[in-house]
TrEMBL record:
Pfam families: Band_7. SUPFAM superfamilies: Band 7/SPFH domain. PANTHER family: STOMATIN-LIKE PROTEIN 2, MITOCHONDRIAL. This is Band 7 domain-containing protein. It comes from Neobodo designis. SMART domains: PHB. InterPro entries: Band7/mec-2_domain, Band_7, Band_7/SPFH_dom_sf. Residues 22-181 form the Band domain. The lineage of its organism: Eukaryota, Discoba, Euglenozoa, Kinetoplastea, Metakinetoplastina.
Length: 290
């Protein structure tokens, strides 16, 4: 019976961007290593395998050249002295030619770069009102990024992009903005309703005008017909044989038309009142002329 023991060896340096084993050191891709001799920085090691003198030299650390991203929440004031919070996203990386400066200058790059961002934002935001912040978000981010680059380039870092993700005003300001928006939409709805009423009134007036025009045309045609009838009646009257009957008929017709007009003076009334005891057109003529 044979027992086989397997020894697993874990190198803690592999988590820091490089592997080291005696005189052999291996820097991982997208990293650069820093070679120190007797505790003093000597050279930058590129990715790959490098042989060193383990007695006097050591690979101190490796810095990643990849793009880093960090978040920060900044509290600042606007032109109206309103305090709000701003959520920021900063994308930065180490400048390859200044990698030793980046490693030996800043002890905590994320926290220190976030502090630079807070300082730049607090200097920029008081120049804008709250309404202008949303419209000028890109312009503000660009100016803050330029100011930030000037601050951190001396430390071997560059800012690739800076995003102002969101503004968080106080809750009472949000409620006030919602009320203003609601009132504005209510005014727009009232204006639309008033415009609809105005159009309806115009169309109704146009319809009434057209109705009256047609009534006038009808009245004119009726007058033409009456005139033609009267001409025929006068022609018969002038004959002399039926003059009295024609006159009685015309007067009776006019009398009945007058009574009908009086009855229509009030809406809904259709009753015509005729004097009692009238038995013929001649009686009507006699009654109306007495």
């Amino acid at each position: 019976k044979v027992t086989v023991s397997v020894l697993y060896w874990w190198n803690p340096c592999s988590m820091a961007g490089f592997d080291a084993c005696g005189p052999c050191v291996c820097v991982k891709q997208s990293h650069v290593g820093f070679l120190e001799e007797m505790g003093k920085f000597q050279d930058v090691l590129p990715p790959g395998l490098t042989f060193i003198n383990p007695c006097t030299q050591s690979l101190k650390a490796a810095v990643s050249l990849r793009l880093h991203q960090t978040q920060c929440m900044v509290s600042s004031t606007t032109k109206e002295r309103m305090t709000l919070r701003i959520a920021c996203e900063i994308m930065y990386r180490v400048i390859p030619s200044m990698a030793p400066t980046a490693y030996y200058s800043l002890s905590d790059p994320k926290e220190q770069i976030s502090s630079f961002v807070e300082s730049a934002l607090r200097a920029e935001l008081p120049e804008y009102s709250f309404d202008e912040l949303y419209a000028s978000k890109q312009a503000i981010a660009g100016r803050v990024q330029c100011a930030l680059e000037q601050m951190i380039q001396h430390y071997g870092y560059e800012v690739v992009d800076l995003l102002l993700v969101e503004f968080y005003p106080p809750q009472d300001v949000i409620m006030s903005m919602n009320r203003q928006m609601t009132e504005r939409y209510n005014r727009m709805a009232q204006a639309s309703a008033a415009e609809i009423v105005r159009i309806e009134n115009i169309k109704r007036a146009e319809a009434e005008a057209e109705q009256k025009r047609l009534q006038g045309v009808g009245s004119a045609e009726m007058q033409k017909g009456l005139s033609a009838g009267m001409e025929s009646a006068l022609a018969l009257w002038n004959d002399g044989d039926h003059s009295s009957e024609v006159m009685a008929l015309m007067l009776t017709e006019n009398y009945m038309s007058l009574q009908e007009s009086i009855s229509r003076a009030k809406a809904g009334h259709k009753t015509v009142f005729v004097a009692g005891g009238l038995e013929s057109g001649g009686s009507v003529l006699t009654h109306r002329t007495v």
